[in-house]
TrEMBL record:
The lineage of its organism: Bacteria, Bacillati, Bacillota, Bacilli, Lactobacillales. Residues 223-310 form the DHHA1 domain. It comes from the Bacteria. It comes from Streptococcus himalayensis. Coiled coil: none annotated. Residues 17-152 form the DDH domain. InterPro entries: DDH_dom, DHH_sf, DHHA1_dom, Oligoribo/pAp-PDE_c-di-AMP_PDE. Gene3D superfamilies: 3.10.310.30, inorganic pyrophosphatase (n-terminal core). This is DHH family phosphoesterase. It holds the Pfam family DHHA1. GO terms for molecular function: nucleic acid binding.
Length: 314
């Protein structure tokens, strides 16, 4: 049976459905999780549909999370959206359900779950959820369309990243037909606070770049605290170095309170996810995340990135 139909059958079979997503949610994680929740709530109003996880302050304008009790997991169907590996699933109780489904668009390095729908050709998990809805004639309400649209524009950088396909645009066009506040959403996703603007200035001022266009910047806790910023706020400036035409590939190393560094890696052409995997991370070929547990490891990752570009085949 077709994978999506199998998922639909499982959804019909269970009275309680709990939908998870990854830690440190971005608009696609939240959009796919909450979009699926509201889609299912609309079509199966008699079921209990819950979405647990950390209420990320910078995204509460888009959605709020549910409070989920341990007892809700008894005999429940659990669906995890947009999360490649179990270590990154927000709320470890995902294991406590009766049946586990993974829906994701990252490389399937950690093939967890009883049923897996992984489509690395999809721009975003929100695109997959919207495709699921349209394929099975499950109509949406305006809010669901807005959540899924936000997820797609978040993960495609407003249709600029290469993962944007004709299908992405087709699905986005269908979502755009719903009368949610499109202008408000576009403004919200295209603006940032003054401290973040200053952080962007810092990134451009302090960017280190080699002769092959491999760039990096280190954002210390001191810098973030001085500007009243959090780790989550750095999402707004991750793409900034890539706007420089000479930059091919870049890393943003964000010092954490625990003194280790969260590493955000991006590339225009050369795949970087193998470097990410070597350093407690993973992700897409051109957009990955990792961790560095010392300043030496920060330097080592930068050297490995430099090596990648130096030795790339033309
Ligand atoms: P970010 O820089 O956090 O926006 O992450 C870029 C991509 O890498 C996303 O698709 C994440 O899912 C993935 N990613 C980030 N951090 C990790 C990690 N520690 N392990 C695996 N994948 C990650």
């Amino acid at each position: 049976m077709d994978l999506q139909l199998q998922i639909l059958h499982k959804i019909k079979e269970y009275d309680t459905i709990i939908i998870h997503r990854h830690m440190r949610p971005d608009p696609d994680a939240l959009g796919s999780q909450m979009g699926l929740k509201h889609l299912l709530q609309r079509h199966f109003p008699q079921k209990t549909i819950l979405a647990p996880g950390y209420d990320e302050p910078s995204l509460t304008w888009l959605a709020h999370m549910d409070t989920v009790e341990d007892s809700n997991y008894e005999g429940a169907l659990v669906i995890v959206c947009d999360t490649a590996n179990t270590a990154r699933i927000d709320d470890k109780r995902y294991e406590k359900g009766d049946f586990l489904i993974k829906i994701d668009h990252h490389p399937n390095d950690d093939a967890y779950g009883d049923l897996l729908w992984v489509d690395t050709n999809a721009s975003s998990t929100s695109e997959m959820i919207a495709h699921f809805a349209f394929t099975h004639d499950l109509d949406l309400d305006d809010y669901t369309a807005k959540l899924l649209y936000a997820g797609i524009i978040g993960d495609t950088g407003r249709f600029l990243y290469p993962a944007t396909t004709a299908k992405t645009l087709e699905i986005a066009s269908k979502l755009r037909n719903y009368p949610f506040d499109f202008a408000g959403l576009a403004r919200k996703m295209d603006s940032f606070s003054f401290p973040i603007a200053k952080l962007q200035g810092y990134v451009y001022d302090h960017l280190e770049m080699d002769e092959n266009g491999v760039a990096r910047v280190i954002l210390t806790q001191e810098l973030l605290k001085e500007n009243g910023l959090t780790d989550a706020d750095t999402a707004a400036i991750v793409s900034a170095p890539g706007k420089i035409d000479q930059v091919e590939l870049w890393g943003i190393f964000v010092e954490q309170e625990s003194a280790h560094y969260r590493v955000r890696l991006r590339s225009k052409f050369v795949p970087i996810n193998e470097v990410a995997k070597k350093h407690d991370g993973g992700g897409h070929p051109l957009a990955s995340g990792a961790n560095a547990y010392s300043k030496e490891e920060v330097d080592q990752i930068y050297q490995e990135l430099q090596y990648l570009v130096k030795n790339k085949e033309n």
